[in-house]
Amino acid sequence: MAVRVWLSAFLLAFLLAFLLAASPFAQVARAQSEEDAAMQEVVDGADLGYVGDDTPVSSEEPLSPAPGVETVCVFPKNAGKIVPAGEETELLVGLQNEGESNLNVVAVHSTLHLPYDHKMYGQNLTVQSFYNASVPVSVQATFPYTFAVSKFLQPGAYDLVGYIVYEIDQHPYQNVFYNGTIEVVEVGGLLSVESVFLITLGIALLGLLGLWAYGQVQQLSKKTKKGPKVELGTGTTDANMDEWLEGTAFAKDKAKKNK
């Protein structure tokens, strides 16, 4: 019985660790179908421009989106939006022009923010420019964008804001193609240091609980093995036993000895 209790505690600890470790993969699986559908919508009818060198994009005042221009963002083969620190991450920016004039895509850039305060910049990421990237009216186009966060960035959740800058009749416009959370992790692993610590702590607590249960079962087993003591001797024999032996040769011999 003690062995069964110990095995049950061990299996429970293993199951808890597996569920904690598998939670990021479950989120990826749930989002995969939606991302695949968006990818198909973006790639169809794509008119890719030429990817040039990184150049700064500046403006004295914030740019607004042009009427009829819609954007969408897809992380190919990375539905969980997991970004290894110090390594390049690729995403696709889909743009649909339903306006009245052709547009020319100038550049794609993004910024990293702390999740609790967008005014605090975590990092200004790559600015990627495009040349001869014209999108006619009623056409969808896809533009690849590659960025990398600093390898010294603390692992955790951050907010990524991505912008695509374009011109219509030599007038600049800008759309936000992504404004959401990404998970920055250390290179070589999908789990952050905090996640590993929590998993280890949970296993340790369950192990201690199993040892405590094992000790309780051991004490209970020792108590059940000890039977009631029966004392035999002069003056301590049970009265029921005297009645049961009454009339036998043993009782007559005992009476003679007592006399």
From TrEMBL:
Pfam assignment, any one: TRAP_alpha
Q: Which superkingdom heads the taxonomic lineage of this protein's source?
A: Eukaryota
Alphabetical UniProt keywords: Calcium, Endoplasmic reticulum, Membrane, Signal, Transmembrane, Transmembrane helix
Q: Which GO terms describe its cellular component?
A: endoplasmic reticulum; endoplasmic reticulum membrane
Cellular localization per UniProt: Endoplasmic reticulum membrane
Specify the protein's topology with respect to the membrane: Single-pass type I membrane protein
Tell me the first and last residues of the signal peptide: 1-21
Membrane-spanning segments: 196-215
Q: What does the similarity note say?
A: Belongs to the TRAP-alpha family.
Q: What is known of its domains?
A: Shows a remarkable charge distribution with the N-terminus being highly negatively charged, and the cytoplasmic C-terminus positively charged.
Q: What does this protein do?
A: TRAP proteins are part of a complex whose function is to bind calcium to the ER membrane and thereby regulate the retention of ER resident proteins. May be involved in the recycling of the translocation apparatus after completion of the translocation process or may function as a membrane-bound chaperone facilitating folding of translocated proteins.
Assembly mode: Heterotetramer of TRAP-alpha, TRAP-beta, TRAP-delta and TRAP-gamma.
Q: What is this protein called?
A: Translocon-associated protein subunit alpha
Provenance organism: Triticum aestivum (Wheat)
Lineage, broadest ranks: Eukaryota, Viridiplantae, Streptophyta, Embryophyta, Tracheophyta
